[in-house]
Amino acid sequence: MKFCYKLLCFLPLGLIASCGVGNESAGNTTEIENAIAIRLFDSGTPAAKVHYQVLPSWYVADTAETSLVSYTYEGSTDTNGWVHIDGHKDGSYTINFSKGDSAIVLQYTLNNLNHEYTIDSISLDAKGSVKGLVDLPDSAEYAWVAVQGTSTIVKTDSLGQFNLESIPSGNLTVSAWESTEHASIGQTSVDVLANDTLDVGLIENPNKVVPENAIRFMPSELISDWMRPLNFPTVLVLRLTEENFDFSKAEEDGSDIRLYDGKGNLIPFEIDGWDTSINSATLNIRVESAADTVRPWMLMWGDKKAEKLEDVDVWEGLSDSLVSALNSVTIFDFEEGSQYNALPSPLHYVWYIQPHDSATISEALQKDLTSGIEEADSSIFGKNVLHVQYQANKLGRYVVLGTRIANHKHDLSRLDSVEVWVKGSGDFEVVLETVVESDTNYKTTYKSAVNEEWTRVSIKPSDFTSPDTKSYHGWDVTRNKITRFTIFMYNGTDLWIDNAKMYGINLDDLL
Predict the structure, then answer these.
(1) By C-alpha distance, which of 202, 182, 200 is closest to 61?
(2) What distance in Å separates the CA atoms of residue 134 and residue 144, rounded to the nearest whole number?
(3) At the fourth CATH level, which superfamily is domain 5-126?
(4) Considering Cα of 340, then 344, then 346, then 347, what sign does the dihedral take?
(5) Dist CA 262 CA 187 (whole Å)
(6) Residue 249 — very low, low, confident or very high, per pLDDT cuts 50/70/90?
């Protein structure tokens, strides 16, 4: 059975019959009904004798006879790069220009309201590729994936993965079809770029049944660029909020949650923070291999009879370096020697030093804050530390070192600790706070003093001071509103600082 038979049998055969070729007349206007005029360029020069093919935009290639396509129109550009087709049929069409490794497609529609299509300059470009995943029906071993309006069609693998190579640049529609019933699974619109591979993600199957208390999602949604290249086994983090999860339908401790892979197998995970007072939770999910991330996962909850799952050590066997990368964020290390924090883009903000209430900083710092970056004096650090020389010896005077760590408020409830190395004279405070326009400046703080020896200060959420009635709101109020990391210094003259880190979270908690 031909793949496209069911699609085409209801349409006039004349639509896909070869009806003629473009003529050699140049010009950028049309004088009769239903005509197109297109001029093609190649590297800025009119592209003569470039092959073109026209098919209805709904056309899907025949899997059995892809080499025997009957084009609606077919021909070559004239000596001035023009294609001029008069007496064009009504309908929506895709025209494909190709020359070696270069190609470009255009889509147009002609009908009783629009009889002409004219464009006086398009350019050939290098071909691209499209890859993705088809949401296979449960009984299907594979699916067909076609670029509509062209003769391109490929078969997926058994997981639904596909790769369309040598695709012309331009806007196209990619459609997926069942391998047995030849019924449509779904489609997506793509903009193919030259010399680039576009990942369209999942082409979803609308016939998949999703229970009421469940969400389906692609594991790739949990894999950020900073995590690549992936090493397996690994741990991915799923963050649940009231936007993607109904906490009112789940058990108070989340014990009824189940996570399944694309084949219906349970996926091991641990709950790392569950708080219905702010409708926030995180799941650490163990992933053994790349194959486990290919098909969609389903998270289900709400089964009152579900028994609590046994605890799982999702970190077992992972290297220390991977565990650290997935569970810590460095705010300051001053290794760049610049006025930027240690966070990657787009969180790579400048840091600042600000005196308040008649406090002062050294003249050198006033002129250039990076002048405070000095060579480290201990092997436990990198090459640089920051030295802040200041005067704030009276009550109420203080100096602040700070940086923005997020553009909007995040829930950092799963924070394990904050670490910073300090030495010098005087007192200091590590303050996590909210600095968002038109919002309360929520703060939580830890206060201590420094001496002339380098000291590692480790601060757990329980170590932050209790809230007061003036300016400090405490950890429980501030934990889901933090956007800035600051260190206050006072009652002294010098503070050396290095390696400020946050443990128990990763970069996605801040993005």
Answers:
(1) 182
(2) 9
(3) Immunoglobulins (2.60.40.10)
(4) negative
(5) 20
(6) very high
